[in-house]
Amino acid sequence: MNKQQGQFYLFGQKRFLPFFITQFLGALNDNLFKNALLVIIVSSGISASDSNTNFLTNLAAGLFILPFFLFSTTAGQLADKCDKAWLIRRIKFAEILIMLTGSYALYSSNINLMLGVLFLLGVQSAFFGPIKYSIIPQHLTTEELMAGNAQVGMGTFTSILIGTLLGAWLVSYEGGTLLVGATAMMLAFIGWRASCAIPDAPSEGGDIRISLNPIADAVRNIRLARNNMTVFYCIMGISWFWLFGGSFLTQVPNFAVAVLQGHATLISVLLGAFIVGVAIGSLLCAKISGPQVEPGLIPFGAIGLTLFSADLFFASTNYQLANAAISAVMPVQFFSLSGGLRIFVDLMAIGMFGGMFIVPLYAMVQSRTESHKRARVIAANNVFNALFMVSGALMGIVCLSIVQMSIPQFFALMSAANLLFLVLLVWRVPEFKLRFLAWITNNR
Q1: pTM confidence score
Q2: Among 37, 119, 234, 275, which lies 20 to 30 A Cα-Cα from 223?
């Protein structure tokens, strides 16, 4: 890929476009069903005979993450052993069957079956994850890695936003569960058809024995990742981003309503600001770095995360003082209030710098891992991602429920924690600091 072609050149390539459509629709479908289920649990009273709403919402989140602990290592072995395109087609066909079951669960209002379907979607995502990032360097050149990862990152977060909003919107209509089921089935079918056009990606791993012991396999995969400590710390950086970003996204609904005194519609606006920011940052990252993988953008992104999350603390604190007498603030009114636009910009900037932080990390893992063990290393990354996300959720519970921090104070804590993580990262991988200084010098 030359500079004249630009990063969107890849959308015209059969070796990339079918895969992009497949992963985009898969992430959209996961979030469509998951958010529709959460809205059903919260709004319909379906949980009254079984348990409380809080338990079911947390159970739903846990059921989706659990398969990443149980199956990521096996998925990595399969992805290194088998043709990745062949595996994707079978995983996407399984999605059709899962969504068929999900449609019945929604139609019958069977909450237990809905939760079971959510677990199966987590299983499917756990098996797709190692393939998603190991097939990219197999179909793209080294010079195309940044653009490819940027577009996949942009697509992933855009699909999360669309799926989240679409799930809540469709289920709010009369007969909305049928609409959600039909939409999920349609997306699963289109995703499977798109996967049929993905070019072959033959195994590069040789004769790999498939083991079904997730703990022993996870230890082996972590050892593979630690063979290259730069790759290992890139995995730590990716996992930290999911902890950091997940912590922010989890708090946004309560932040919008309880702190900003906003109407429920403000939640979607603020979530959209963060997620669109990540998509923009992902694309900017590829634009700034050009064809080469630029590690110097990693500290740059982390610095932006620290500064704007700290400013979000100050902006939201000032907003509360200036607008204490107002309630049920609509989105249009929010932007006219003192501090409203600043908070929106902060959230979008946090997302944008997050995108610039994570894209080169993924590209470095891909480019610096030997091809025959790449999927297993990415499987180790997925296990760490899930572990960090659960840790972030627990940290939120401790800080907000036990220590009784306010949400703005929690944002300030995350800003400080991110700064400490940046110091650790550049200390353990001096290349990041050196490339950052060189990049700043060359772009004065």
Answers
A1: 0.85
A2: 119
